Amino acid sequence: MDKALKFTVEKAELPLYKVSQLVSLTPAKLMKLDKTKGSIAPEKDGDIVLTDKDLYVKQVYVQGKRVI
After folding, report:
1. Which of 15, 20, 13, 14 is nearest to 51 (CA)?
2. Dihedral sign (CA 29, 35, 40, 44)
3. Per-residue pLDDT for 1 more than 80?
4. With helix as H, strand as E and coil as C, how does the chain read?
5. Closest C-alpha among 50, 51, 48, 55 to residue 11
6. How many Å apart are CA 26 and CA 18, to the nearest integer?
7. Which of 63, 42, 61, 51 is nearest to 1 (CA)?
8. What is the torsional sign of CA 66, 26, 22, 20?
9. Which residue in 10, 35, 38, 45 has its CB near the most CB atoms, within 10 A?
10. What is the pTM for the complete model shown?
């Protein structure tokens, strides 16, 4: 995901928030998982990837628990 995010931000020249939706919420919607995946909101799984300013993964949380 970090490579797709970084590549799209650089090449498509889209804002980070829009690219984040494209690589997270859009696939969740396509797979009909958007009730629990693809964004952060109450009643969702709490999966999130945190990156540094260069968009390299620094921390990963799955169901609200840190895994990386």
Report:
1. 20
2. negative
3. no
4. CHHHHHHHHHHHCCCHHHHHHHHCHHHHHHCCCCCCCCCCCCCCCCCEEEECCCCCEEEEEECCEECC
5. 55
6. 10
7. 51
8. negative
9. 38
10. 0.80
Number of domains in the chain: 1
Expressed as residue numbers, the domain containing 59 is 2-66
Q: How far apart are CA 7 and CA 9, in angstroms?
A: 6
Interatomic CA distance for residues 4 and 23, integer angstroms: 7
Structure tokens at 41: 């909101």
Q: CA 63, 37, 48 angle in degrees (round to 5)?
A: 50
